[in-house]
Amino acid sequence: MSEFRSGFVAVIGKPNVGKSTLINALLGQKIAAVSPRPQTTRRRQLGILTTESAQVVFVDTPGMHQPRHKLGKFLNQEAEDSLNGVDVILWLVDGSHEPEEEDQLIAGLLTGLKRSQRLILGLNKIDLLHAGQTVEGQSLLFQAMVPHASLVPLSALHGEGRQSLLQKLIENLPERAPDFPLDQLTDLYEREIAADLIREAALLYLRDEVPHGLAVRIDEFTERGEIGAYIGATLFVERESQKGIVIGDGGLMLKNIGSAARKEIESMSGRKVFLQLRVKVAKDWRNDENFLNRFGFKIKK
Predict the structure, then answer these.
(1) The domain made up of 5-171 is a member of CATH 3.40.50.300
(2) What are the distances in angstroms from CA 181 to CA 6, 56, 268?
(3) What pLDDT, in 10s, does the model give residues 78-105?
(4) How far is C-alpha 197 from the chain's CA centre?
(5) pLDDT above 70 as % of the chain
(6) pLDDT (tens digit, 9 = 90+) per residue, 144-186?
(7) CATH: 3.90.870.10, 3.30.565.10, 3.30.300.20, 3.40.190.10. Which one for 190-294?
(8) Which of 22, 42, 174, 244 is deepest in the core (most CB within 10 A)?
């Protein structure tokens, strides 16, 4: 009988390459917010997959990018810090595009690591290859940047190559006992996941100028027995004009966001939820260190 394997896998990549989509799919349950917008993920989150022979602890990270504000610097810092102490690094790239500046940034970071973690290159979105593109050709473009990496083509969304990737990850984990209880899926509490799901709903509904300037605070999370749970939350925006957009005519936009978020939270928690949202302005909060610190976005000096 083979030994049990267990370890941590940091999933790194530029914004919107499918990191959270992949982890949700492998777990078979949604624990991380996803949307077509970049920078949906804002902090490290563990996704814990336990099988009969292995426990894979995925470390979902914010997308690495060229920062334009203090929040952006924190997101990059979170992603870089996630590489410390893990057993395997999975660099997920968008195989339907050629390498971009952000990919070069990540490749430089990975090749400069002092510790030699196992590195796997996940060529994602192969279902979106354009005319004239091939899996082999796109693989060569990215693998040239990290020649020591093992490469696995896949579609995180549609499933092709997902199990091959999972098997490759497990093979590279050390033989040891699991680090977490066998039924645990993540390290976040329900209220933290709820905040992410509310922001996810907002990202799906709002115009381009609003989503990245939006933060969510859970003000109250109260169990109400058989009735379910009551959640009160505040959506922070950076400008007064954005507040009007989030609320919408007659409060319709906020109602739509709340309805979509409530359904996701109920699906995640398995019980009824009453969700009440309000909107406040926190001017230029992404560059306000005091605001960022209160929300847990602490930038290293």
Answers:
(1) yes
(2) 12, 12, 19
(3) 777 888 889 999 999 999 999 999 999 8
(4) 11
(5) 90
(6) 999 989 999 999 999 999 999 999 999 999 999 999 988 888 8
(7) 3.30.300.20
(8) 22
Nearest to 19 by CA among 144, 101, 106: 106
Domain range summary for the chain, segments of one domain joined by +: 5-171, 190-294
- Phi first, then psi, for residue 139 (nearest 5°) are -60, -45
pTM across the whole model: 0.75
Query: What span, in angstroms and rounded, lies between the C-alpha atoms of 9 and 133?
Result: 29
The DSSP secondary-structure symbol of 31 reads -
Contact between 265 and 275 under an 8 Å Cβ cutoff? The reply is yes
Torsion of CA 190, 210, 257, 201, to 10 degrees: -50
- Residue showing tokens 């690495």: 64
CA 121/CA 103 separation, integer angstroms: 12
Place of tokens 């078979």: 28
Alpha-carbon distance values, 59 to 19, 87, 113, 155 (Å): 10, 11, 18, 19
